[in-house]
User: Which sequence fits this backbone?
């Protein structure tokens, strides 16, 4: 053992995580594709040639122009335009932004609820555990989409279309977040049950630390690895859920399109030959979900304690 | 005689096995029956630990020695009986009332690989208890304290920013000892502190515990299954079998003149370096489960001296001439 | 003429292929085992004693591999043998007992089924005959009501009983060698004593060679005739058990014996070896023990000591070899 203290960066470079990342081509490619998409989405206002939210910039005469390389294409619209004459590239950039925002937002909500309830159920046990986990069971026995459709329909009916458009993004985050927390709660509970038997928890109890401190400072950090894996996959799931809801007309309105509502809006025009309006955002969605899932798979392999022998 | 530091009176602990009400009910022979089962881990233990001594509790797995340790530390609450610290009953204290005793009483655990929080550095692990119990100390004083305690267990204070997994088992156990010592306790419960360690490391840790006892005036309750360690470390020994104390004596007396048949068998089973063959008193049968305790003396099923009285009547600890206290009818009646 | 030993391990090297290169787990291990001999393999965790046991049966799990040397069993090299030939030897001629009985026993099959299966894997006999053999072996290990045990499942037995069953399984095919890897570590002292006595008795009765891997010097002294002491993948001392226990030559062996609480004066500080065994990742140069050794010189730090003979004991230590040299000089000067 060397006496020099390692910096965090050295520690990371020495870690199994970094080692297996370097060696896994799929993980590297996925990571960079995702990074590219996230950056493109974050900087969409700077990158996009037009602002799809600005009605003044849209010219209906430009509608349904094909992507560059096809007959009748306009080089100002590299990926063509949709039925309303919006630039597809810009709408996709903005749409990815909305989809990612909903994905991350929903997972942050899921994780917050899941971790809190999972910790409480696992650590306190007894009646708290029974009640929380039964709620989770009930919640899981409904499909996410079904709940979302009902809640979405109720929202839409009670707020009206215009108001709904404004709160749609928060509503989607809320619906998807609330519908999926039991996944994370169950995982957290399972790791808490394993962790709380370990002696460092007894040592903390013997020190006289309060329950909250033991739960959040001592146990929680040790349950994070599996949560990390699930959260990654859940982002992809949330994006898909959002796309599905939008496709059913219960998600983002067309004025602030997500990838899902873009697909939906183009779907009507497939028959008329304007396939790109649906297909391109569809491809973007597939790639986005795929790379997130691939990264999630890689993370799961790395963090699986049975395989982990660093 | 001065009053004991720790006084354990009539301690009993049962663990419920049968679960919730619904799981207890079964349908048998055309009738619903309610069945409740419990593990009788401790069945009436009285022990005193005196200031400055090391009381060793020995026994085989399932004898309840660890349960005694955990009940004394308040990690488990007793089913019956009391635990007193320096004359004050502590097993029923609530909330903030316990805190002063948390500082005075500390514990060292068996598994050094599980007793350090894997996500905390050594510095954090050691600082947290000091900050918690001594909010009056300034940052610098806390650091000095951590340095001092690390040095005293033989861990380089420069290693504070490392995590537990970067250390060997022996070093981790030193760190765990440092954590217990950090709050300046008077009394330490050590639950099999060396049984997970290698032979050469065991000696290091035992020496460390003995040094700490000298310099800090500590009192130990030392739980172990290893009689050779007891002979070396203990002031007094309590031998436990199936949740009861069967013999309690000064270490020297116990090893020179074991009275209880179980103690004799246990002593004979230690593999000694000078032996050329395994050389031991063979016991009949196996340790009964603590779910269905035998009637009378818990040892009677395996005891070569058992008679009708042993099967019926629970023996009490009685003092003998040598000062040893034994729970055995045969010894009491002079048959042994 | 010296008769050939039953098992002879020559210059065995075992390495683990891990990221950042190979780790040497065993370095130049050489020893032999005669028919009916009981050999103890002593060392602390990380010394390589379990790897040594596994490599004898060519069972080192990947990423480990045998990098060099020979394992001669009745003159045939197990290290160079095909998997098919090895299977004929494993469990049949050389049996193994593990620390955890559940490594051998399948929890979902009855004990009888497993024993019959083990026999039929090596012999073409009827189930009835195999069952009789199984019953006989269970009697041999003194299990009460053996007929009943055949139909029981492993979880229905206590730890001590399970370990007896494991011994019975090891004995099924009348092996020449039993390798027992920490067979009693998980058991209580009284049961440990019973199991060790049983193992010893059975080996003596049938003239079976026993290789006992343990960290407990007391057990080694009770059961074995010869012993090897391993440190950091190397045998540092080997010879007759009594001779080593009574008068260990290597400073590590001395330290190990003196560190035992039964060797110390009650209440006094124990003898302690400073530091701990190096991990395979950074084995020191020269003698691997030198950072913990109170006799270490520059010679120890630079080169690995060769084995020298002192009495009937082979030791790898410069301190010992220098002492022997000195004695020789004194004698020569005297005569």
Assistant:
């Amino acid at each position: 053992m060397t006496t020099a203290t390692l910096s965090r960066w050295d520690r990371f470079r020495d870690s199994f995580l970094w080692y297996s990342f370097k060696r896994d081509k799929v993980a590297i490619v996925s990571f960079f594709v995702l990074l590219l998409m996230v950056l493109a989405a974050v900087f969409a206002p700077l990158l996009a040639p037009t602002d799809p939210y600005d009605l003044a910039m849209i010219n209906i005469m430009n509608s349904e122009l094909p992507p560059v390389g096809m007959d009748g294409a306009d080089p100002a619209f590299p990926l063509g335009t949709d039925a309303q004459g919006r630039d597809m590239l810009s709408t996709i950039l903005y749409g990815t932004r909305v989809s990612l925002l909903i994905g991350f937002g929903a997972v942050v909500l899921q994780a917050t609820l899941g971790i809190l309830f999972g910790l409480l159920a696992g650590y306190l046990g007894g009646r708290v555990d029974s009640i929380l986990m039964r709620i989770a069971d009930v919640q899981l026995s409904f499909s996410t989409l079904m709940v979302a459709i009902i809640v979405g329909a109720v929202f839409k009916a009670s707020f009206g279309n215009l108001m709904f458009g404004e709160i749609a993004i928060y509503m989607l985050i809320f619906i998807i977040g609330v519908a999926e927390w039991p996944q994370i709660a169950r995982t957290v509970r399972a790791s808490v049950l394993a962790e709380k038997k370990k002696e460092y928890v007894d040592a903390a109890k013997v020190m006289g630390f309060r329950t909250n401190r033991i739960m959040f400072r001592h146990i929680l950090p040790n349950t994070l690895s599996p949560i990390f894996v699930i959260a990654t996959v859940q982002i992809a799931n949330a994006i898909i859920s959002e796309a599905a809801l939008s496709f059913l007309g219960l998600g983002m309105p067309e004025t602030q399109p997500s990838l899902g509502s873009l697909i939906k809006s183009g779907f009507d025009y497939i028959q008329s030959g304007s396939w790109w309006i649906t297909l391109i955002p569809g491809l973007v969605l597939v790639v986005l979900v795929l790379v997130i899932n691939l990264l999630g798979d890689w993370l799961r392999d790395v963090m699986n304690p049975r395989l982990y022998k660093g | 005689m001065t009053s004991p530091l720790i006084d354990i009176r009539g301690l009993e602990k049962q663990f419920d096995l049968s679960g919730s009400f619904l799981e207890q009910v079964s349908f048998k022979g055309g009738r619903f029956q309610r069945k409740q089962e419990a593990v009788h881990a401790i069945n009436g233990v009285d022990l005193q630990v005196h200031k400055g001594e090391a009381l060793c509790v020995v026994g085989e797995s399932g004898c309840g020695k660890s349960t005694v340790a955990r009940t004394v530390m308040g990690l488990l609450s007793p089913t019956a009986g009391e635990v007193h610290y320096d004359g004050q009953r502590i097993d029923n204290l609530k909330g903030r009332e316990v805190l002063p005793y948390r500082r005075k009483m500390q514990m060292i655990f068996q598994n050094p690989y599980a007793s350090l929080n894997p996500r905390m550095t050594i510095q954090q692990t050691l600082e947290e208890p000091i900050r918690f119990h001594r909010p009056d100390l300034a940052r610098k004083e806390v650091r000095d304290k951590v340095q001092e305690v690390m040095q005293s267990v033989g861990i380089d204070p420069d290693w504070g920013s490392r995590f537990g997994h970067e250390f060997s088992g022996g070093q981790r156990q030193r760190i765990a000892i440092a954590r217990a010592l950090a709050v300046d306790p008077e009394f330490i419960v050590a639950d099999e502190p060396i049984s997970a360690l290698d032979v050469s490391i065991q000696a290091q840790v035992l020496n460390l515990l003995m040094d700490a006892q000298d310099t800090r005036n500590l009192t130990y309750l030392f739980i172990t299954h290893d009689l050779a360690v007891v002979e070396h470390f203990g002031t007094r020994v309590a031998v436990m079998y199936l949740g009861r104390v069967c013999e309690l004596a000064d270490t020297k007396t116990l090893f020179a003149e074991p009275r209880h048949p179980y103690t004799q068998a246990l002593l004979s089973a230690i593999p000694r370096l000078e032996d050329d063959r395994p050389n031991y008193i063979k016991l009949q049968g196996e340790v009964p489960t603590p779910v269905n305790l035998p009637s009378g003396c818990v040892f009677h099923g395996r005891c070569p001296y058992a008679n009708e009285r042993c099967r019926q009547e629970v023996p009490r600890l009685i003092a003998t001439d040598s000062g040893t206290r034994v729970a055995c009818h045969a010894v009491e009646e002079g048959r042994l | 003429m010296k008769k050939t030993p039953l098992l002879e391990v020559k210059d065995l090297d075992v390495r683990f292929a891990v990221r950042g290169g190979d780790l040497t787990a065993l370095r130049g291990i050489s020893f032999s085992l005669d028919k009916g001999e009981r050999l103890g393999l002593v060392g602390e965790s990380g010394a390589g004693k379990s790897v040594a046991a596994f490599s004898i049966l060519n069972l080192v799990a990947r990423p480990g591999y045998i990098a060099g040397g020979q394992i001669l069993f009745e003159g045939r090299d197990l290290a160079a043998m095909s998997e098919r030939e090895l299977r004929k030897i494993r469990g049949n001629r050389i049996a193994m007992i593990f620390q955890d009985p559940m490594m051998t026993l399948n929890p979902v099959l009855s004990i009888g089924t497993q024993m019959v299966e083990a026999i039929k894997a090596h012999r073409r006999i009827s189930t009835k005959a195999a069952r009789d053999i199984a019953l006989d072996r269970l009697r041999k290990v003194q299990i009460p009501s053996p007929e009943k045990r055949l139909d029981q499942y492993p979880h229905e037995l206590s730890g001590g009983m399970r370990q007896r069953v494991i011994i019975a399984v090891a004995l099924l095919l009348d092996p020449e060698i039993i390798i027992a890897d920490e067979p009693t570590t998980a058991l209580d002292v009284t049961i440990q004593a019973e199991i060790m006595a049983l193992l010893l008795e059975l080996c003596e009765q049938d003239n079976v060679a026993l290789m006992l891997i343990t960290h407990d010097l007391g057990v080694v002294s009770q059961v074995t005739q010869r012993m090897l002491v391993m440190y950091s993948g190397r045998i540092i001392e080997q010879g007759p058990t009594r001779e080593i226990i009574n008068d260990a030559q290597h400073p590590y062996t001395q330290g190990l014996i003196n560190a035992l609480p039964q060797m110390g004066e009650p209440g006094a500080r124990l003898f302690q070896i400073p530091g701990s065994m190096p991990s395979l990742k950074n084995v020191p140069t020269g003698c691997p023990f030198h950072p913990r050794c109170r006799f270490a010189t520059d010679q120890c730090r630079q080169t690995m000591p060769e084995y020298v003979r002192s009495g009937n004991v082979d030791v790898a230590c410069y301190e010992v070899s220098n002492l022997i040299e000195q004695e020789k000089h004194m004698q020569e000067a005297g005569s």
